[in-house]
TrEMBL record:
Molecular function GO labels: oxidoreductase activity, acting on the CH-OH group of donors, NAD or NADP as acceptor
Key words of the record: Membrane, NAD, NADP, Oxidoreductase, Transmembrane, Transmembrane helix
Protein's UniProt keywords contain Membrane: yes
Protein name, entry field: Dehydrogenase/reductase SDR family member 7B
Annotated source species: Anguilla anguilla (European freshwater eel)
Length: 323
């Protein structure tokens, strides 16, 4: 055998030996990962099963899908919203969908207007009477906005802030004392990627979500000592009627399904992600695509570039409805 052939043989043998040593490590690592994921799922199921879960804005959109996901996971739901008839339809659907494979409960209903913060205290009492306590509060109800700062009335900013921010704050503060007393509980809020970045023609909405992010970040730090968890979940665009029902600068209904919204994530997928985030007690979750996620990092690491990109976007959007 020539010297070259011998070297090739030695190299080939070494490579095979190295590969043979790596295979068990790779398989072992994969096994550990699978075991970890299995334990996470078991923990999630145990956390949600039999838990009393309150969902606001449950009659449509993401709230409705969250109701389906948490009901299937065995939660004792308290569905909240303004439209009692739609909530009753949802209760009937969930009750009929029970297959007997997992223990489920017929949901309770509490109807109220989240923007009416004066009535939230009495509403919280009604919610607590359903099962005596609340394990998980999911602040989901909200309204979107389309308009330019120049022509938007201050009353519109107040309306959006009243629902998206003050409503969630009021309900959270009304339920929180019972959680602190029990030294147990979980508060989640559905924010938005626009709670981390701001884009043109969304001033009222982005401001309400920025405020939401700040409040619940503060809350998380303050209540950890009492055994209460806080999750801020920030989705990107979701295929719901949020943009159709959005308010405009003069307070009228927007009535248009934005292209970005129409091409957004399936609300069922987002609801499952919310279920996982709550079940695993994740503190801050960004459920956005690559570009919005990149924008969050650019805003943090290179603000001048972000500002230029947003100014360019604003110039391209001649009117908010051309979104």
């Amino acid at each position: 055998m020539s010297l070259v052939s011998r070297r090739r043989s030695l190299i080939g043998g070494g490579a095979m030996e190295l590969l043979g040593g790596l295979i068990p490590l790779v398989l072992g690592g994969a096994g550990v990962l699978l075991l970890y994921q299995l334990l996470q799922r078991v923990r999630q199921r145990a956390y949600i099963q039999d838990a009393v879960v309150v969902i606001t804005g449950a009659s449509s959109g993401l709230g409705k899908e969250c109701a389906r996901a948490f009901h299937a996971a065995g939660a004792r739901l308290i569905l909240c919203g303004r439209d009692r008839a739609r909530l009753q339809e949802l209760v009937q659907e969930l009750t009929e969908a029970a297959d007997g494979k997992r223990k489920t409960y017929s949901p309770s209903i509490v109807t109220f207007d989240l923007s009416d913060t004066e009535t939230v205290a009495s509403v919280a009492e009604e919610i607590l009477r359903c099962h005596g306590h609340v394990d998980v509060l999911i602040n989901n109800a909200g309204v979107s906005y389309r308009g330019d700062v120049l022509t938007t009335r201050v009353e519109v900013h107040k309306e959006v802030m009243g629902i998206n921010y003050f409503g969630s704050v009021a309900l959270t503060q009304a339920i929180l004392p019972s959680m602190v007393q029990r030294r147990s509980g979980h508060i989640a809020v559905i924010s938005s990627v626009q709670g981390k970045i701001a884009i043109p023609f969304r001033s009222a909405y982005a401001a309400s979500k920025h405020a939401t992010q700040a409040f619940f970040d503060c809350l998380r730090a303050e209540v950890e000592q009492y055994g209460v968890s806080v999750s801020v979940i920030s989705p990107g665009y979701i295929r719901t009627s949020l943009s159709v029902n959005a308010v405009t600068g003069d307070g009228s209904r927007y009535g248009v399904q934005d292209k970005n919204t129409a091409e957004g994530r399936d609300p069922r997928e987002v609801a499952e992600a919310v279920l996982r985030a709550v079940g695993r007690k994740r503190k801050d979750v960004l459920l956005a695509g690559p570009l919005p996620t990149l924008a969050v990092y650019i805003r943090t690491l290179c603000p001048p570039l972000f500002f230029k990109l947003m100014a360019s976007r604003a110039r391209k959007e001649q009117r908010p409805k051309e979104d």
